Each structure stands twice: as structure tokens, then as C-alpha cells.
Amino acid sequence: MRTRKAILPDAEQIYELISAYSGDGTLLPRTLAEICENVRDFVVLEDDSRIIGCGALHLYGTHLAEIRSITVAPWAQGKGGGGRLVKALLAESRRHRVDCICLFTRKPEFFARQGFSVAQREDLPDKIYKDCHACPRYHCCDEVAMVRGDLPKFAILPEPANWLVKLQPWASNIGGQTGSS
């Protein structure tokens, strides 16, 4: 077994692996288009040139990255592949000089063995603001937040858009005006 950076032709196999675990809720579903757009975030696990696992590292900034969509084919589990994926993603985070790696999981025991510890969701505002608000499980999330490294002391949240047009009700007769300038 070996890990390598994913390339675009891997996207369909990554999609199939993630889809196999999104039906039971183990992983959040990802569309093929989303995987294609973010394929540079992914690492794949190969055995005899066959992709048997994947995982992604999503960067929020040098203060925080997230391991997401990590999975190994059912028949290949228990052979160290998941640990290899985590190590490859941690190496990638070090290459980018990221201080803290987070993840949300239903398998905290596995990630505890990889050096992660339980954290509070509130300590990860970048993740919550950017991803969790759009999640269908937002109000009933049963995933455990975990981190490795020092918790971020700041967040990089998007600025409100100044260029948006502000619509105001149009009054037909304000102060004697007829509504036209």
C-alpha cells in the first residue's frame, strides 16, 4: 500500500469511495463536481495500482486545516491504510506550515490513536462558519470535533460584501414627491 496526491482522473473512484460511506451517514456526501473542483486537496491510498482509500486536507489558513472525507474500502480496512492516509495528510499540513489540524468524525477512537484530541466546536469558528451552516446535519450533528496541534487563537472569516445592492421599498408619495426624481 502506498499514498500519493490525487489527480483528476482519480475523481470518479474517490466519489465512489465517499458515496459508499455517505449513505449510512459515516461521511458527508460529496458530488462528483465538488470532488473534481477540490481534487488537489485529496490523497489516495493505492494497493496494486487500485485506489482503495482517500482523504482530503482542506486549508483555512496557516492557523487551521481540516482532514475530511477520509475512508478506506470495507474489504481493505484493518490493514493500516487509514493511518497511512492520516500520516500523508499530516505531512501535507506540515508542508503548508499549518498549526492546527481539525476534523469532525463519528470514529473518534481511530483519530485518538493518530494523536488527535476532542475539542469544542466553538474553538473552530472557521470550520463552523464556512461549512457547518450549510450542512444538513447542522442542528442535529452527532460528530465529534477533534484537533491535533494548538487551537487557533484567531479566525479568518469572510468580510460582508459591500458591493451588494441594498433594496429599499419604493414609496409613491414621500414628502410630496411622486416617486420619480
UniProtKB/TrEMBL annotation:
KW Acyltransferase (keyword) present: yes
An example molecular function term from Gene Ontology annotations: L-glutamate N-acetyltransferase activity
Annotated N-acetyltransferase domain residues: 1-135
Gene Ontology CC entries for this record: cytoplasm
One Pfam family from the record: Acetyltransf_7
UniProt entry keywords in alphabetical sequence: Acyltransferase, Transferase
GO biological process: L-arginine biosynthetic process
InterPro entries (UniProt xref): Acyl_CoA_acyltransferase (IPR016181), GNAT_dom (IPR000182), NH2A_AcTrfase (IPR010167)
PANTHER family recorded: AMINO-ACID ACETYLTRANSFERASE, AMINO-ACID ACETYLTRANSFERASE NAGS1, CHLOROPLASTIC-RELATED
Name of protein: GCN5-related N-acetyltransferase
Organism: Candidatus Sulfotelmatobacter kueseliae
